[in-house]
Each structure stands twice: as C-alpha cells, then as structure tokens.
Design goal:
Aspartate Aminotransferase, domain 1, 13 helices, alpha/beta, seven-stranded mixed beta sheet, 2 domains, binds glutamine, Aspartate Aminotransferase, domain 2, three-stranded antiparallel beta sheet, 12 strands
Amino acid sequence: MRELSRRTAGFTDSVIRRMTRISNEHNAINLSQGFPDFDPPKELLDRLAEVALEGPHQYSVTWGAQNFREALAEKQTRFMGRKVDPDREIVATCGSTEAMMAAMMTVLNPGDKVIVFSPFYENYGADVMLSGAEPIYVPLHPPDFRFLKEDLETAFAQNPKALVLCNPSNPLGKVFTRDELQFIAKLAEEYDVYVITDEVYEHIVYSPHVHTYFAALPGMWERTISCSSLSKTYSVTGWRVGYIIAPPEITETARKVHDFLTVGAAAPLQEALVTALKFKDSYYRDLLEVYDKKRRLFIRGLDEAGIPHTDPQGAYYVMLDISEFGYDSDQEFCEDLAKKAGIGAVPGSSFFSEDVNHLIRLHFAKSEPTLNAALEKLSRIRDIM
Ligand code: GLN
C-alpha cells in the first residue's frame, strides 16, 4: 500500500489521552488528563434536560446559534473589556481544540513558521504540523517561567506568521504579566505577526495574579485570534463547545475552515449553555474559590510529602520534580506510578521541545476526597516507587 499522509508522521498519539487510558487500565486515580470529577452547575443540567425535549436537535447556524453568540458576546464583553460583535466576531467551535486548529488553518500556509513557548500543551505541535507549518520554540525558564527577551526577539526575527499564547498556561499554570504581554505585543506589531491565544483557563487565575486578555491590549485586537472554551469554566469538557473571537476579516475565513471541518458545535448543547453564559459574576468568583481551595490542599500535601513542585498562578496543573527516583524515562515513571501507586500522571517530556525528563504533570480538578486519597498515596511514594 502507498504511504499515508506525511503530515501526520511528525507527531505521536496524544500522550495526555494515552495516560488516561493507562490510568483506567490500572484503576488509578486519574490526575493526568485535566477534567473535573464533579458535576456541572445544576441550573445548566436542568436546562439541558428541558432542551432534550424542546430541541433544537438539528444543525445550528454553522458559526454558532444566534442566541449562543449573543450570550457569549455579552459575557466576553464584560470580562474582556472590549465590545464583541455577536454577528461578525464569533465562531462557535467543537471545543478550543477545534478553535485552535481552525485558527491555525485560517492563518498559516505550508512552510510558515509559528512561535510556541515551551513547555506547551501538546495539541499545538500537532496543529502546527497539520497546517504544514513549522514551530519555533521559545523556552520558559524556571523558577518563574519567564522567557528571555533576546530569545523572543531572535524568534520574531525568523519571520514567523503567528505566535501561540496559552494564558494561563498549561502545563505550567503561568499567568503572563501585563509587561510580558506588552513585550510580545510590541514585537507582534513590529514584525506583523498574528497572535493565536488559548485562554480556556481565563476564569481560573489565583490572586494576586490577574488575567489579561491579549486581544484587549492596545492595538492588538486586529491581529489576535482568541480561542477559548466553555469546558473548564462550566465543567463540561465532554460537551466540546468552544469558540474563536476575532475581527470580521479573520472570522470570515475561520468560519469557512470551521464549516468544512465540523459544520458546527452541537446545537442542543449551545442552547443549554446560553443559561450558563448568563450566570452572574458571583458564579465565576465561586468557581475560583473552589479551585483555589483545591490548589491549596494539593500544594500543602505535596509540601508535606517533600516533593518539589511548581506553584501554579492559574489553571489546575502542577509539575512535580521526579529526579530523585532515578528514572531515565518519565513515561516509564508515569506507567509505574499508575501501576504501583495508583495515580495517573502525564510525563513532562510531552510538553517540552527541549530534552526534559525529570518532570511529571498532575492536575487537581478533583473532589477533595479524591485529592486526599491521591495525596495519601503520594506521601508514601518513596516506599512505593
Ligand atoms: N486540557 C486538558 C489537559 O491538558 C485536557 C486535554 C484534552 O484531552 N482535551 O489535560
């Protein structure tokens, strides 16, 4: 048989999703793939039950149902501080995963270059390659995971077409400061580069850190394609509803890409989510409080266990340093961790362009009893591994 597409040869299956499968095989507490084990808001589920009987059950408008886009525009205008036009500036997608892929296919030609900070959420590497483009990686350095200005300047000088900005970042939990974002903005303007953001953790940012929407920075609206999702904000990762927000000149093309990729996000779920998009500000405060409590619980447990780790400023991931266990391969460590300790984790190497093998990622989007059970196992990790 003839060879399959060369485009797919540059990447493996998703390590995150693979670790969920391995974790399930061993009946482990799955702290690998980041999703909550608690229910979405009751009001949202009640509305979903109504929608099941009332509909809609057929296609929505391909770029998103009118009432969904209106509710989303109203909510994002409130948080971004920039007026979003529901009719011309939104494309509803199947999760931020599709939003990112569609954004890249909207912007990139084969051979184009894209700046990606490393470590990065693994989808971006595959998205860039599927678009026929090439990544330019810029490292984020511990302990506070800043980029070096000269590294970023060197990357911009290589004529990239776009930069991918995951803020708050997965897997680091880094929240980019306004100064860092302004430095990126200055270079994006100077070199005429598009900025594709992934802001799915926009509402999970721990005080004193604050989320700055890149599109809302002075002069950045025209060149920013904001991608996000309702998955994490309303605890509905399986619903696969996300979106692109961008100027009309960009959404016009993004709508075409999206239409041919998926036609549309699930119509009944968009309808139900209108209810969530209309939640008051207190919903977002409560969500943050819930995650902040989990964060403090989890970090305290790791400290008590004496395991070195990152301190997330946003999102719900922690990287643990596993150097002391003497494994050559972090993948092997994670497989053993699932098998022997009953905890699912993601090998850090899947996030880095550099050769990094001493980190693993855990997430804490789990109920307190689950987190306590995981911490109890981690407190005995030196006897187990
Ligand atoms: N964003 C989540 C993570 O990093 C889930 C990824 C996914 O599987 N879509 O784990």
